[in-house]
Amino acid sequence: MSMKNELNTITSTITELSARITTLVEAEGATMPTEVYAELVAAERTVGALLRRLNRVAGRVNPS
Questions:
Q1: DSSP state of 62
Q2: Hey, CA dihedral for 5, 23, 56, 46, is it positive or negative?
Q3: Cα Rg of the chain (Å, integer)
């Protein structure tokens, strides 16, 4: 598998993970203990930052 394909696969997986975390925060946030909610929101931001970096890297890799 080429690096571009591998990065696209990883990015797709991280995108799905990000959506799942966001759904959890939005659907269950009001019923969560404050510290759990805060940690999930922090995780959501971290995953979002990771996704932006992966997209930048994938955009710089030439297809092979």
A1: P
A2: negative
A3: 15
Spatial separation of the C-alpha atoms in residues 63 and 44, rounded to whole Å: 30
How far is it, in rounded angstroms, from Cα 25 to Cα 38? 9
Q: How many CB atoms lie within 10 A of CB 7?
A: 18
In contact, 4 and 61? CB cutoff 8 Å = yes
pLDDT digits (tens, 9 = 90+) for 6-57: 999 999 999 999 999 999 999 998 999 999 999 999 999 999 999 999 999 9
Q: What is the value of pTM for the model shown?
A: 0.84
What single letter denotes the amino acid at residue 15?
Answer: T
